[in-house]
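Pipeline run #58 for the internal structure catalog. This entry was flagged by the ingest filter as a single-chain record with no existing model, so it goes straight to prediction. Upstream metadata was stripped on purpose; only the residue string is passed forward. Reviewer on rotation: M.T. Logging verbosity set to normal.
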Amino acid sequence: MKPGPYFFAWCDEAERGDAFAAALPALVARGSYISVRMGSDVDRSVNFVDEAVAMIRAHFGRTDAETYFAMELDDRRTFYGHYRCFTGKSERLKPRGPIHMVPASAADILPLELYPALGSGPRSVEAEAELAWHIVLDDLEDLLLRLCAPDASRRVSTGGCTSAWTWLAPVSMCATYHANAGDIARDLALSWVSLHDGESVSRIAGLPAEELRARVEAAPAGARVVPTDKSGRSIPLSRETVLKALAMPCSALIEALIAAADVPDEAWRAAEPRAEEIHNLTVQARARGEGFTRGGGSLTWVELTGEHVYFLVDHARFHVRRLPNGGILLATHPYRTLWPLWSDALFALGLMP
């Protein structure tokens, strides 16, 4: 398995083939060939999305679907990736999706180098890391929405992204999506059931709210789990906190998440002026048609090192995005998880002990 980031989507089994086919045109780069494999039924490469969609609709259900093709990002960068859809039978045997996508190389989404215009100012690892955050977050959100919400059907009810190869507890992901913003508390309930009961999120993502609540209530009073926080902190999530959050109006949870995301920490704020300066200088240089030239020019090669990674792990900002379709998306850099955002919001609401 490749190192990710991995994108996941869940929808009802009866609509899974349609959801998979609907996202294909939104993902395939113009002019790309599409390799389609469906068990022993299909193993072909085609040049037209419609042809690939027809094959998927004709055979999915009897077998899984796997495709491979080039995708294009907003800045015209292209990369190859795997896009797969698994039947209910496959998911029951080994939960892997049921719909998921992964770039062929992690560097396609998580660049290992930048080419900024630094001007006369000093190098700043923190500012460079913030620039990388902006690039990655834009691409991550774009791809997750193309996967989960390529049209107005809202077939996909939830999805997410993580640097891990499997669908983690939602609060341990770097991004989650809900077609209905009112379902935001499901991230907590799914996380609890996954971490406490050892359930695969891929298998429980579609459980009714009442069943999820019952699973949480069934745990012993005072029970706790500890979601992944890559910065090394151990902030537990209690059964009682989850139940209180499920009982709250979703609007209160969303407002608390937005408020928490809108307040970056001191280290991030301190680096923002230099990051903005570098960004503006880079935009100006590219507007003049400048490219990177070794030994000259205003653009500089910057290799992202462990220092950049550690800064993002500890300080990367969060983004809470209300969507026109009535949905909601939470996101941060894949080097971080959403649990610090959730814990800050829950503390602010007085729900954490």
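catalog note: The chain has a mean pLDDT of 90.
catalog note: Residues 116 and 299 are 5 Å apart (CA to CA).
status: ready for reviewer M.T.
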